[in-house]
């Protein structure tokens, strides 16, 4: 203890030889950071402590992980690492000069810590001083730096390299994702086939499996195919990759990411996201005019300032003096550059008790059993974020007594107002081409991405995402045979269409549109915005109405036919998430937002949407899979279709044609609605009249014996192969057992959508034990916890009454999900609170009618 006293005391000195002798036992554990090593010298791995915090930050000289004062002992006990670099930034008020001005009083002219200057401090009035020490555990020996002459050369080099290392988040905050990408070697010489393919602005689906999400447009031949699960966290069967292997066409762009500023491009050959400097030309080849989008987007911004500002003012409650809120549950989150979508979703997530218990309630256990690198562990980072938001440690109001004391001591202790989720965002978006970027994203997509990660990273026996999960019963009816099929699927969000035709202020909207066009033509200021007022009951009615099934194949007719689908709740979740489908694409490919006001209710009853199952008198469609058409040339997947002789009610066709609709469109309407009459066909026309091929001649694919035999052969190959592991993981994440997932995929030729239908239609799977499955179960035991409470009956659900109360909503401002800003409103302790990034205030006028995503909690019966 005498040696420890020498280091703690300021008067005593230790000889250089003694310092070297002291450090000799620890030299093998001291590393010099190399290129590629991540040095976490700005943020604790378990908390939001930093060198600005009162206790500073300890950086391990071996792993380069940073730890606050509360967590350094845990790392020492777990790893046995003894040598840490302690970093501390002091903030002091400058001493006024004789003339009243501030005089510099900086002992260290160089600030060697890569930290931001606090935005709430005026740099003209305060000065900063960085301090570094070597600390040796467990006795907390301290060696002040710089101490070059007395320290061994390796230690000096390691300290200098660590102090000069850049923050691993610097690019995340200051640079965009695109700047880190490299231009593809294929971009300049890419060959595009002149095959006449034109891509519509909406209605996309995979040409091989009919999936409608995670779709990629191949820039060589215009194929629209689904990606793999790992591309963006959404489901996919990997058909885009299969297409590349068959054709060698290297580049694809993700549909839905195309904006005037660029798009997400992936190179299958280079196996990474890339830049395509010629993306505008490549997209124009398929009818997507990005340059026109740029001009129009600028025009909208320049000419439509007033309506956009109005929306921003209303949602952010601008012009109203809002009272700041402090304490547990009222902690803001810093915007890292278009990361407000993440901030809004996480504030809503951690207002839910089940997530609070799962992560914050289990925080000691999660931290104690975290891996050696906790920055790369999902549960650790979730617990860290939850504690940061709920502890109140980073949301303290300024106290007058503290301010007086700080002035007397000349030292400023910065208040921790909010947290910066840099480490959380870096981990949760890793490998994701959209969320890892610095561009604005869709909050709904991020919510589903987060739920997927929660499902795949179980914490304890209870999965908090169970509160969102519900079953949807889909009733599909063949319009010609009248037979039906009932299937169930898992979902987490109720997507509510906007019933624009039910607007209650149509006359005002028409008048406003006329004035707006006149003002644009005359280059006058735009009139005051008139927002469409949509009754909520009309949106709910639109959700419950039947919808047409495109390319429906009737197993009763053994051919394509018209089909309609109706969705109902087979179970009601504990927490109901409702998304208002405000975003769409115009015919010019410009992303558009429906700027509407919907009278969302505080209390919601959807009990009438409870599924009823097969009804008396209904006849089920035969359980026969459609034949698989195998083209002779894989490049010919968009081959010519053949017109069959069709039985069409010509009288209904003529009735529609007399209304002024194109004749071919009328024929399709009558055919696809099963000759049920002109009225039903008219509804089909209204729903499809904006589609690019609306007036094209009616064509249907012909299914021959060759296709059937080819399908059988393909099926035989599929049954012999082990299903792709990512597909198995997707089904497991929904709560099903692993052997059931593999059995379903094998039975459906590895088609994910059909595999889910197979599971629901086979409630009692065969109890066969495959030795290979048992081996794989042992190798993939990571999912043991998530499957612990799951039986063969299906996914875990928390069914109950369909009556709910609103407790939160996320609002979006801007013209599309690719731009703008998100804000979250939550009801806490009997009042509404607005979470606008770092700003957390009591809400005076919560704009419940302008929300994008709504959160409801079930009312106990």
From TrEMBL:
Zn(2+) binds at residues 206, 209, 226, 239. Residues 647-688, 722-762 form the UBA domain. GO terms for biological process: autophagy; protein deubiquitination; proteolysis. It holds the Pfam family zf-UBP_var. Coiled coil: none annotated. The active site is at 340 (nucleophile), 821 (proton acceptor). One of its GO terms (molecular function) is zinc ion binding. Residues 182-290 form the UBP-type domain. PROSITE patterns: UBA, USP_1, USP_2, USP_3, ZF_UBP. Keywords: Autophagy, Cytoplasm, Hydrolase, Isopeptide bond, Metal-binding, Phosphoprotein, Protease, Repeat, Thiol protease, Ubl conjugation, Ubl conjugation pathway, Zinc, Zinc-finger. It is found in: Cytoplasm. Residues 331-859 form the USP domain. InterPro entries: Papain-like_cys_pep_sf (IPR038765), Peptidase_C19_UCH (IPR001394), Ub_carboxyl-term_hydrolase (IPR050185), UBA (IPR015940), UBA-like_sf (IPR009060), Ubiquitinyl_hydrolase (IPR016652), UBP13_Znf-UBP_var (IPR041432), USP (IPR028889). SMART domains: UBA, ZnF_UBP. It comes from the Eukaryota. It catalyses: Thiol-dependent hydrolysis of ester, thioester, amide, peptide and isopeptide bonds formed by the C-terminal Gly of ubiquitin (a 76-residue protein attached to proteins as an intracellular targeting signal). GO terms for cellular component: cytoplasm. Its EC number is 3.4.19.12. Its main location: cytoplasm. Interacts with UFD1. Interacts (via UBA domains) with SIAH2 (when ubiquitinated). Interacts with BAG6; the interaction is direct and may mediate UBL4A deubiquitination. Interacts (via UBA 2 domain) with AMFR; the interaction is direct. Interacts with UBL4A; may be indirect via BAG6. Interacts with NEDD4. Belongs to the peptidase C19 family. This is Ubiquitin carboxyl-terminal hydrolase. It comes from Catharus ustulatus (Russet-backed thrush). The gene is USP13.
